[in-house]
Amino acid sequence: MSLPPILEGRGLHVRAGSSPAVRGVDAAFQAGEFTAIIGPNGAGKSTLLRALLGLSPLEAGEVRLEGRALAAWPRAARSRRVAYLAQGETLPPDTRVRDVVSLGRGAGDWKWGLIPTRPWTEADEAAVTAALERTDTRRFETRRVAELSGGERQRVSLARALAAQPALLLLDEPTNHLDLAYTLDLLRYLRCEVAGGLGVVAVLHDLTLAARADRVLLLHQGQVLAEGTPAQVLTPEHLRASYGVRVSVTEHAGRLLIIPEDG
Ligand SMILES: Nc1ncnc2c1ncn2[C@@H]1O[C@H](COP(=O)(O)OP(=O)(O)OP(=O)(O)O)[C@@H](O)[C@H]1O
Asked: From atom 26 of ligand 1, which residue's Cα is the shortest distance away?
């Protein structure tokens, strides 16, 4: 019997500006599963993530978190279950790294934006330390954000999201700014967390990375063009239809390689 989804969107229609950006998408995300969302620029990937988080108003459809309508969840409880790392997230430049990561523990827990609604505990401290360690950011935890490189900031953003100890982690292009070593580290880390039960949904542009997910959702013009295992989705036909590029797909050492033939 399959597990119920942590987060589920049914019949989602979302407008961005004056045009429809997501058109009739169904998507469900489980614990212990790594889903890659792929598709060309403007396909609606970020808009879909934002809609699933309740950050973009729905024109039609419904999002349910653990079986309950998203709108019925208090904001703080919702952000403890589902953490989000936005594309190009900007962090407060004068804030120290550890304090930024600590924000992940209390998202939405501030009354009138000023007064914490619950005391800071040892469990909070331990979760922050663990998130710093897992992202290899603890060694500069006392530095200010303004003193970090783009890749280091990206890892601090990830640490902030992880500090919430969510059931599901939504990441929008998390490998932006990361060098090859940290990209592979991130992937290894995510795989390890997924094995421990975390659900991960990542918007990825690198199809070779997407090929290492459990499941791939290919968006094209706001609709799901294909969904399934990497081998089912990452076919020359699907990639030609969505990206307009001819590719060949081969297997090397048990992994799919996508090689563009044009150009
Ligand atoms: N604020 C906005 N106002 C108007 N149109 C928007 C807005 N945000 C997004 N769009 C449009 O909605 C569509 C989907 O955008 P979205 O950012 O979801 O795509 P994406 O697949 O994440 O793209 P990318 O790979 O370039 O990040 C695009 O056509 C985009 O131009």
From this structure: 41
